[in-house]
From TrEMBL:
<dbReference type="GO" id="GO:0009117">
    <property type="term" value="P:nucleotide metabolic process"/>
</dbReference>
<keyword id="KW-0479">Metal-binding</keyword>
<dbReference type="Pfam" id="PF00962">
    <property type="entry name" value="A_deaminase"/>
</dbReference>
<feature type="domain" description="Adenosine deaminase">
    <location>
        <begin position="9"/>
        <end position="348"/>
    </location>
</feature>
<keyword id="KW-0378">Hydrolase</keyword>
<dbReference type="InterPro" id="IPR032466">
    <property type="entry name" value="Metal_Hydrolase"/>
</dbReference>
<dbReference type="InterPro" id="IPR028892">
    <property type="entry name" value="ADE"/>
</dbReference>
<keyword id="KW-0546">Nucleotide metabolism</keyword>
<dbReference type="GO" id="GO:0006146">
    <property type="term" value="P:adenine catabolic process"/>
</dbReference>
<dbReference type="InterPro" id="IPR006330">
    <property type="entry name" value="Ado/ade_deaminase"/>
</dbReference>
<dbReference type="GO" id="GO:0046872">
    <property type="term" value="F:metal ion binding"/>
</dbReference>
<protein>
    <recommendedName>
        <fullName>Adenosine deaminase domain-containing protein</fullName>
    </recommendedName>
</protein>
<keyword id="KW-0862">Zinc</keyword>
<dbReference type="GO" id="GO:0000034">
    <property type="term" value="F:adenine deaminase activity"/>
</dbReference>
<dbReference type="GO" id="GO:0043103">
    <property type="term" value="P:hypoxanthine salvage"/>
</dbReference>
<dbReference type="GO" id="GO:0005829">
    <property type="term" value="C:cytosol"/>
</dbReference>
<dbReference type="InterPro" id="IPR001365">
    <property type="entry name" value="A_deaminase_dom"/>
</dbReference>
Length: 361
């Protein structure tokens, strides 16, 4: 199964680039930037990452390591590291979250530094690794709507086709960070603005139904008009929400390893597995890695590892894994022609694995 999954072409649709920063890379960047190296000792960092079992300690460690970033090269290196691991795991297309508010708005960094480093690495990744990476700008939901609107304003030059810094790599907006108590509807003005922010509009996604219950999903669909739900596993607690997701074929970007480690949804790995339940009910599920460098995924990371871990735990047979790969392209924001081409490659790949790879579930 691991070999089958690693080679299976797939898209990764739920990956926070800050969550891909390994302890070794955080240390190297801290050194380059003249920071206190003791605080970023890679062995201590790896040990800390093995310890946390809930959201708050994770966010503290995440915030500390994200704080090493100072220069364009730091963002380039962090992104290129991820793209290399993605390529090793059969990821051919990735729609990658980044959090400008984690880095900017503190007088240390400008939006320009962040996006330029990231897009330069994406360009190199396309050329040398064959991974087509795109960006989804995320608002931090525990910060103000006014700041989210300011982020969009700062991103505007990168979205205007006639601007000298225009980049087609910025394809959408999302929303992340602690969910409970931070209702999605509050961000309606930012999403309304994003939807009209460039000629064809930005795609809209949001984290919902991870810590928050199913009503957060409904609110994100109604108020923010999102096209894809990040996490969304708690839809299982409300049959009407599941029915709505199935009817509209709204994709979920589920992250089983993350849910398991952070225990944001304790029942996830107990009894019936959520991914299998969602698949069997006809929900368009995809499986992703979320913050792979923090969840024991080490150097293998990426969607492949998440698929693999689920499979290892005995919850997913290879036919489900094949369906997840097909879903990952269906749920992506690539063109219909590109979806067809990638899905044909999945089918072709699976032919080579018969009889181990039954038809899609
Ligand atoms: Zn996430």
């Amino acid at each position: 199964m691991p070999e089958f999954v690693a080679g299976l072409p797939k898209a990764e649709l739920h990956l926070h680039i800050e969550g891909s920063l390994t302890p070794a890379r955080a240390y190297a960047i801290a050194k380059r930037n003249g920071l206190d190296l003791d605080a970023f000792d890679p062995e201590k960092g790896a040990a800390a990452r093995r310890e946390f079992t809930s959201l708050v300690p994770f966010l503290i460690e995440y915030g500390k390591c994200s704080g090493v970033m100072r220069k364009e090269a730091d963002f380039y290196d962090m992104m290129y590291d991820y793209l290399e691991r993605a390529a090793e795991n059969g990821v051919v297309h990735a729609e990658i979250f980044f959090d400008p508010q984690t880095h900017c708005y503190t007088d240390i960094l400008e939006f320009k530094t962040v996006i330029t480093g990231l897009t330069k690495a994406l360009e190199e990744g396309r050329k040398t690794l064959g991974v087509d990476g795109k960006l989804i700008l995320c608002f931090l939901r525990d910060r103000s709507v006014e700041e989210a609107l300011q982020v969009l304003e700062d991103a505007r030059p990168y979205m205007e086709v006639k601007s000298p810094v225009y980049t087609p790599d910025l394809l959408g907006v999302g929303m992340d960070n602690a969910e409970l108590g931070f209702r999605p509807g509050r961000f309606k003005p930012a999403y309304d603005k994003a939807r009209h922010a460039r000629e064809a509009g930005l795609h809209c996604v949001a984290h919902a139904g991870e810590e928050g219950d199913a009503s957060y999903i409904t609110e994100a669909l109604d108020d923010l008009k999102i096209e894809r739900v990040d996490h969304g596993v708690r839809c299982l607690e409300d049959p009407a929400v599941v029915e709505r997701l199935v009817k509209a074929q709204t994709p979920l970007t589920v992250c089983p390893c993350s849910n398991h480690r952070l225990q944001v949804y304790p029942r996830f790995f107990c009894g019936e597995n959520a991914v299998r339940q969602l698949l069997s009910r006809g929900v368009k599920v995809t499986v992703n890695s979320d913050d792979p460098a923090y969840f024991f995924m080490g150097n293998v990371s990426a969607a492949g590892r998440a698929c693999d871990a689920s499979a290892y735990d005995g919850f997913l047979a290879s036919n489900y894994v094949r369906t997840l790969a097909l879903n990952s392209f269906d749920a992506s924001f690539i063109s219909e022609d590109d979806k067809k081409a990638h899905k044909a490659k999945v089918a072709e790949y699976c032919k080579g694995w018969r009889p181990a790879c039954p038809p899609a579930a």
